[in-house]
Amino acid sequence: MVSGPYMFLRTRVDKVNAELVTLTYGTIVAQLCTDYDYDYTQVNQQLDKMGYNIGMRLIEDFLAKSNTGRCGNFRDTAEMISKVGFKIFLNITPTVTNWTADNKQFSLLFDENPLADFVELPDDGRAQDELWFSNILCGVLRGALEMVQMSIEARFVSDMLRGNDVTEMRVTLIRYIEDEMPPDDE
Amino acid sequence: MVVYSFYIFDRHAECIYKRQWLPPAISTTGKTSRPSSQTYVNGGPHSRSVLSAEDDAKLIFGTVFSLRNMVRKLGGEDDSFLSYRTSQYRLHYYETPTNTKFVMLTDTKSGSMRLALQQIYVNCYVEYVVKNPLSPVEHPGGIGVNNELFEASLEQFVVGSILHAE
């Protein structure tokens, strides 16, 4: 039996003011728009790349906090993402729906999106059709799942900020990544 | 109990951290079985063939990789390799879903180290390596793993907790 200072249980997730997160993210998006001269395609790509880098680290924190084992299939993965992952980090539970028959595609429907509180897209004739404001979430998902051997594609297909009825992210499993073997020597 | 050595392997089958608590000359890693008349008390370079630290790590990785795959073949995808014991040492294994592998070699008297290895992952590796933005996400050659906070927390954990257990 192991005893000592490291046996404390990690049941507490530190709280941070939600508006600080929202405003920080908003500042990042606004700065990217300025930096890329309002080329919203570029902004979307940068948000995805930033999210990918975040996801590769966040998955370890998720595994450490949730004590989750390996997911057996993509349906279990979707439930874990929705009910545990988003719950831990954003305190929301998006709905998993719209599975394809081959169980390789599903949608996440966001009734709430803390990143987009207080946000109204600019009326410049292009943002409504080109900017995916919360695109960082797609990158986070792609980076995190790659670390647990799933190559996926994630993209928004509708967004309430654009005037759509729902905010929907479509997630597609491309392939499972095989274990790497050590190089042969001797 | 005694901890002999500790290794971390990443998802690319590379050793990204290694730590020994006894001199290599009397480490039991890689020791082949000998007649009982052989005396081990004096240790020394003749107690085992001298492998480099890199070869030790490769040998250990190959062993646990094969055992882990064999366990899944025999027991199903949900089965896990936990540990093996020889007459001289016991090897403990913990693998995360991100394919980071934690291996610890101890004396034969130690019990299960699964919780200890998980604690090392949760409280030392994730806190001081993964969450350090100046440590890269990948660690070729061990870059970013042997930072001071990680090593200090690992040392404190091993010396402060494990060595006083049982």
From TrEMBL, chain A:
Pfam entry (one): TRAPP
Any single Gene Ontology cellular-component annotation: TRAPP complex
SUPFAM superfamilies noted in UniProt: Ligand-binding domain in the NO signalling and Golgi transport (SSF111126)
Superkingdom: Eukaryota
BP GO terms, sorted: Golgi vesicle transport; macroautophagy
Keywords: Endoplasmic reticulum, ER-Golgi transport, Golgi apparatus, Transport
Main location: endoplasmic reticulum
Subcellular location: Endoplasmic reticulum; Golgi apparatus, cis-Golgi network
Keyword Endoplasmic reticulum: yes
PANTHER family referenced in this protein's UniProt entry, alphabetically: TRAFFICKING PROTEIN PARTICLE COMPLEX SUBUNIT 3
Family: Belongs to the TRAPP small subunits family. BET3 subfamily.
Record's protein name: Trafficking protein particle complex subunit BET3
Organism phylogeny: Eukaryota, Fungi, Dikarya, Ascomycota, Pezizomycotina
Automatic annotation (TrEMBL), chain B:
Cross-referenced InterPro entries: Longin-like_dom_sf, TRAPPC
Top-level lineage group: Eukaryota
Assembly behavior: Part of the multisubunit transport protein particle (TRAPP) complex.
Protein name: Trafficking protein particle complex subunit
GO cellular component: endoplasmic reticulum; Golgi apparatus; TRAPP complex
Subcellular location: Endoplasmic reticulum; Golgi apparatus, cis-Golgi network
Organism name: Fonsecaea pedrosoi CBS 271.37
Compositionally biased region (Polar residues): 28-41
GO biological process: endoplasmic reticulum to Golgi vesicle-mediated transport
PANTHER family xref list: TRAFFICKING PROTEIN PARTICLE COMPLEX SUBUNIT (PTHR23249), TRAFFICKING PROTEIN PARTICLE COMPLEX SUBUNIT 1 (PTHR23249:SF16)
Family recorded in the similarity comment: Belongs to the TRAPP small subunits family. BET5 subfamily.
Keywords: Endoplasmic reticulum, ER-Golgi transport, Golgi apparatus, Transport
Region of interest (Disordered), ranges: 28-47
